[in-house]
């Protein structure tokens, strides 16, 4: 068994994505757990979750609700938050039919066939 030195930062097992991500750069409004409305920047997204920039950070387990292009309100749970970046997992996966139009509306970079 491999022992991990817990006195130093490590990244073993952090990238546990269910699906590949699409690179985007999109400002999104969202509702904080306390009901306040805020803005974040979506950096990349998949049908199951996304990486967002939000300087104030969030707590693991927080539930936030985004207003997404094409699909509207989408709830997500914070799975990690560090240094102004936060990873969230959507409560419900985005359907195949909606995903491509949504990421195009978000300004997806690269090949999005």
From TrEMBL:
Domain PilZ, first and last residues per copy: 16-98
Name recorded for this polypeptide: PilZ domain-containing protein
One Pfam match: PilZ
UniProt-listed InterPro entries: PilZ_domain (IPR009875)
GO MF annotation: an example: cyclic-di-GMP binding
């Amino acid at each position: 068994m491999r022992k991990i030195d817990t006195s130093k930062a490590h990244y073993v097992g952090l990238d546990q994505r269910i699906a590949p991500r699409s690179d985007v750069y999109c400002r999104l409004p969202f509702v904080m757990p306390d009901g306040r409305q805020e803005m974040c920047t979506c950096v990349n997204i998949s049908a199951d979750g996304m990486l967002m920039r939000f300087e104030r950070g969030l707590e693991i387990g927080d539930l936030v609700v985004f207003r997404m292009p094409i699909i509207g309100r989408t709830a997500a749970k914070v799975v990690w938050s560090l240094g102004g970046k936060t990873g969230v997992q959507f409560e419900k996966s985005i359907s195949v039919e909606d995903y491509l139009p949504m990421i195009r509306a978000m300004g997806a970079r690269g090949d999005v066939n």
